[in-house]
C-alpha cells in the first residue's frame, strides 16, 4: 500500500483538527458497518481505510450553518 503524505491530506481539508475529526467520524461509521468506499485488505484497520477515503476525495466534512 502506498503511503499518504500529511501534506496531501491537508489539501483536502482546512486544518489538522478538521482532518482528525473527519477521519475519526468516518472510522466510527466504518466500524458500525457502513460500506467502504475504497478497495481494502480484510486486515486493514478502519482508521487506515478512513484516511485512504479522505485522500481519494470520497469523504468530505459536511458544513452546517
In short:
With 65 residues, the chain is mainly α.
Low-confidence stretches: none
Helix content: 40-55%
- Our count of domains comes out at 1
> Any idea what the radius of gyration is?
11 Å
In what range is the share of β-strand residues?
Answer: under 5%
Q: Could you give a short account of the major beta sheet? A: none
Number of separate strands: 0
Mean pLDDT over the full residue set: 92
Apparent shape: globular
Count up the helices: 3
Secondary-structure class: mainly alpha
- Give me the strand/helix succession: HHH
Give the terminus-to-terminus CA distance.
38 Å
Which properties best describe this structure?
65 residues, mainly alpha, 3 helices
Q: How would you characterize this protein structure?
A:
- The structure is a single chain.
- The protein has 65 residues and is mainly α.
- It has one domain (6-55).
- The chain has 3 helices and no strands.
- The protein has helices at 6-10, 16-31, 46-55.
- It is globular and about 35 Å long.
- The chain starts with 5 loop residues before the first helix and ends in a 10-residue tail after the last helix.
- The mean pLDDT is 92.
